[in-house]
Every structure is written in structure tokens, then in C-alpha cells.
Write a structure and sequence with these properties.
2 domains; 52% helix; Beta Polymerase, domain 2; 4-stranded mixed β-sheet
Length: 229
């Protein structure tokens, strides 16, 4: 993990620990920073704080952290979670949160996410829940004439996520990291997509002409839909 992200996460954890005291049950990093493949200046620091009944003082501290951001331009994204909020999510959103909290996170302090969130659904059901969430997110970037670095990385990530869904459905695992998609036994029609999309994910360039990445996304989406997901 990038130590610059970790140092800032510790500062945030200390601040909220002082503010919330025993009300703060857990704080953990979620996403690319936790996986160790974040791009400094592009990837956001996603922090999940598990506590209930936020006060005005809690919200003020959150606003101060949100405004601060990170050197280099990355944002700090603070998300509060508790049992009630998890129960109020629809099934697909809850499955996405549980997978990322259990398999794409790093604990900073308090209880491990495994003690707080639900277990994930069985493989076929999980893939059928996650695929529409991934498609909805990726499709938002299809109409863009150009992509920022963050948008390039996001669409590349979603393309790799999508290509992994048949493997998730088969029971290979609930979460295939983006960089591991190239290790999957993909068919001939999708395997050629992986090296270029992985490079876009790793390098996160701004794209004045994103047609190549958008075409890869469309092909991945059509292939996954053809698998019945």
C-alpha cells in the first residue's frame, strides 16, 4: 500500500477516533488503495467509518476532511455505514458493499468488516447482482468525447470487473482483482482486450480520443450479456 495514503488515513482515523470515541466501531480503507494498485494523484482514498447517529459535530468534521483532499489532487471519500444503512440498501447494492468490504479492504482500527457486514451471496446469484451495477457505472462514461485520468481508470476498471463476472459466477471467487483478470481462462474473443485495458488501468492516462477503451467496454459488455449475466 502507498504509504502516503496510509499516513493520511491514520490521521483521519485519529481525528474521528477522538471525536467519536467508543461510537466508532470500525474504520477501514476500501478499493484500490487497499488493494495496493492505486495511482497517486488519480485514485481516491475511500474510507468507511462504521458508527450510527451522526451529530452536527460529526458532520462538521466530515465536511472539513472532504474539503481538504490529498496532495496531488486525489479526493478523500468518507462514507458512513451502520447496520441500519446496510439493511436499507437494495440487494445488489448491499452485495457490492459486502464484497468490497470483505475482499477489497484494509482495516485501520476497530472491528474487522467481517464482524459487521453480511456474508456474500452464493456465486451465481452474486454475479447476477453485481453485473448490472458494474454495467450502469461503466455506461455513464460511454458518451464522453474525452476522458480524464480518473475516468480512464474507472472505465478500464469496470471493463476488467465485467470480464471477471463469469469467473465469479463459476465460483472462482467473489472478487477478482483488476490486475488478475489476465490470469483467467478467457475465450479468444475477449482475451485480446485485457493487455490494453490493464495498461489503461495502470497508467490512467487522460484520453483525448477514448474510442479504443469505449470499444473494449462495449465488447466486454456484449460478451458478458451473452453468458446470461
Amino acid at each position: 500500500m502507498n504509504q502516503d495514503y496510509l499516513r493520511f488515513a491514520q490521521l483521519v482515523a485519529d481525528g474521528f477516533g477522538d471525536q467519536l470515541g467508543p461510537r466508532l466501531q470500525s474504520i477501514f480503507i476500501r478499493g484500490s488503495v487497499a488493494r495496493g494498485d492505486a495511482v497517486w494523484g488519480v485514485s481516491d482514498l475511500d474510507l468507511v467509518l462504521w458508527f450510527d447517529r451522526p451529530t452536527a459535530a460529526d458532520n462538521q468534521l466530515k465536511g472539513e476532511v472532504d474539503l481538504q483532499g490529498l496532495p496531488g489532487g486525489s479526493a478523500v471519500v468518507l462514507q458512513r455505514l451502520d447496520r441500519q444503512r446496510l439493511d436499507q440498501m437494495d440487494e445488489a447494492t448491499r452485495a457490492y458493499w459486502c464484497v468490497s468490504s470483505l475482499h477489497d479492504s484494509r482495516l485501520i482500527r476497530g472491528m474487522h468488516p467481517a464482524e459487521l457486514v453480511d456474508s456474500v451471496p452464493e456465486p451465481p446469484r452474486l454475479a447476477n447482482l453485481l453485473t448490472p451495477v458494474i454495467i450502469d457505472d461503466g455506461d455513464r462514461l460511454l458518451a464522453r468525447a474525452a476522458l480524464t485520468r480518473a475516468e480512464t481508470r474507472r472505465l478500464a476498471k469496470r471493463t476488467l470487473n465485467l470480464l471477471s463476472m463469469p469467473a465469479v459466477a463459476s465460483g472462482l471467487g467473489p472478487r477478482i482483482p483488476p490486475r488478475a483478470v489476465g490470469d483467467l481462462d478467457l475465450p479468444a474473443e475477449t482475451r485480446p482486450l485485457v493487455p490494453a485495458v490493464t495498461a489503461w488501468y495502470d497508467d490512467a492516462p487522460s484520453l483525448a480520443d477514448p474510442a479504443g477503451l469505449q470499444r473494449a467496454w462495449t465488447l466486454a459488455r456484449e460478451w458478458v450479456r451473452a453468458q446470461g449475466l
